[in-house]
Amino acid sequence: MESSWGDTDGREGDTDDGVSEDDYTFANDTAKIVARVLTSRAVQRILIQLQETDLFVAHWLAEYCSSHPPMTGDKFVLDMLRERPFYAADKITGKEHFVSPPELANRIMVARKALAGGMSKFDFPTYLQRTNTEVLRQHLESNSYTSGSYEKVERRRQRRA
């Protein structure tokens, strides 16, 4: 039985630039996931800003997010762009507030673009190499016992638990 998972040399289905269609699919799927995470982070950032400038709109956005999860990414932004701006009265103060979901959607798009720009400066392959090394170190540490090291490992395990 032959398995094609993880054992390809990248030649099958290569395009003119030497990148396989699987690589494009993976990159596209990964970009969609990252965009959803960036949308959520952008909403968090906008909520923090609004809490300092307009609590009423911040509360509205938080309520909107509870029924329209930001993790849907582009769908979340499109839904906000379709909402009509409106005036609402604050039940406590009676003051009228203007809420513009399309304006908030634009702020979210600007914030997620800024977050994405910061990611381009992040060296992801180096990060993964460090992470992989740390995972292997922890594995080897917990599964390799040298004279007198068993007690140290057990104490660390007990502290983590």
UniProtKB/TrEMBL annotation:
Keywords: Carbon dioxide fixation, Chaperone, Photosynthesis. One of its GO terms (molecular function) is protein folding chaperone. Gene3D superfamilies: Chaperonin-like RbcX (1.10.1200.210). Residues 1-22 are annotated as: Disordered. GO terms for biological process: carbon fixation; photosynthesis; ribulose bisphosphate carboxylase complex assembly. This is Uncharacterized protein. It comes from Coccomyxa viridis.
